[in-house]
Write a structure and sequence with these properties.
Layout lengths: L4 E3 L18 E8 L2 E8 L4 H5 L17 H4 L7 E8 L2 E9 L2 H7 L4 E12 L3 E10 L11 E15 L2 E14 L2 E16 L4 E13 L5 H5 L7 E12 L4 E11 L22 E11 L2
Antiparallel strand pairs: 1-2, 2-3, 3-4, 4-5, 5-6, 6-7, 7-8, 8-9, 9-10, 10-11, 11-12, 12-13, 13-14
Length: about 290
């Protein structure tokens, strides 16, 4: 039996469990029948790709996207979208399509497509999971006169293995970005890490990430590289999370980045922090309490 859900100024967190807070200024509706779900959202949605394609978040080393650099792995922001999620035994597939803003279509005579993506994950029992995703972001309206970056192709593959209270994960992401009047920039990002459930409430994790850029120059390095000082960026991260309840947890996080700014999900738009002038390395720490509505 299908059950439509419509909420103003937010989304039903039971249908979109990876969204976190509900204040995304969107009207969302979802129709699901057993293992299949179709969703439609009009308005601003900060994490459309992850809400409907949670496969990649499930294999990230620190376990949840809120503590990791979301913009490094997928497009994250995708407004005015149509989504699909389906489950077929151990296989889960997802897809999304977003419409370009009306002002871009009318002002610059652009087509209707803003971005789209696909994802699939496959579980081998409860111990192993492998995933693959693809995202395509179209150039902004009026490119190259209005923005330096154009089309983006984003491909990711990864896996996770569970051994009792211990889990290990690894993800590789390839990204190609077209840049106005400059060579295309290619990114090869690899992250690996693990978590250990010390107690039912306390989880600790570590992660190492390296990103190698090619095709960069003085113009594109800081624009495409997200506040880098070199085409080879590395980060080490540690996380401790203590669950006070199913929806509330205390957390502490420590990270050190070399050749650029620290990049964690706690940064602006899930990306990197600002790098101090004349500095190439950065260390950051954060403690806090998080509640999911």
């Amino acid at each position: 039996m299908r059950r439509p859900v419509v909420l103003w100024n937010g989304e039903d967190v039971t249908l979109f469990p990876n969204e976190g807070a509900v204040a995304h200024r969107a009207l969302a509706a979802a129709f699901h029948d057993g293992d299949h779900q179709v969703g439609v959202a009009a308005g601003r949605r900060r994490r459309c790709a992850f809400a409907q394609l949670p496969q990649i978040t499930s294999v990230l080393p620190l376990g949840v996207i809120d503590y990791e650099m979301a913009t490094y792995f997928s497009v994250v922001r995708a407004d005015n979208s149509v989504t699909y999620t389906g489950k077929f035994d151990g296989l889960t597939v997802g897809a999304y399509y977003t419409f370009r803003p009306i002002e871009e279509q009318t002002t610059y005579d652009e087509n209707t497509t803003g971005r789209f993506g696909f994802a699939a994950s496959y579980d081998i029992g409860k111990q192993y999971r492998v995933i693959a995703t693809y995202d395509r972001v179209e150039s902004a309206g009026g490119y190259p006169n209005t923005t330096i970056t154009g089309k983006i192709d984003n491909i990711a593959v990864g896996g996770k293995a569970n051994f009792g209270e211990f889990a290990v994960s690894a993800v590789y992401r390839y990204r190609k970005t077209t840049v106005a009047n400059n060579p295309n920039v290619k990114s090869h990002l690899f992250t690996v890490g693990g978590t250990y459930k010390v107690t039912p409430a306390l989880t600790m994790g570590v992660a190492y990430t390296i990103d190698k850029l090619s095709g960069t120059n003085d113009v594109t390095l800081t624009r495409v590289g997200l506040k880098r000082t070199d085409d080879r960026w590395q980060q080490f991260a540690f996380l401790a999370s203590y669950a006070l309840s199913k929806r509330t947890n205390l957390y502490a996080e420590l990270a050190h980045a070399r050749k650029g700014a620290v990049a964690l999900g706690l940064g602006a738009d899930g990306g990197s922090y600002d790098l101090a002038p004349n500095k190439s390395n950065q260390t950051a720490a954060a403690i806090g309490i998080r509640h999911y509505f």
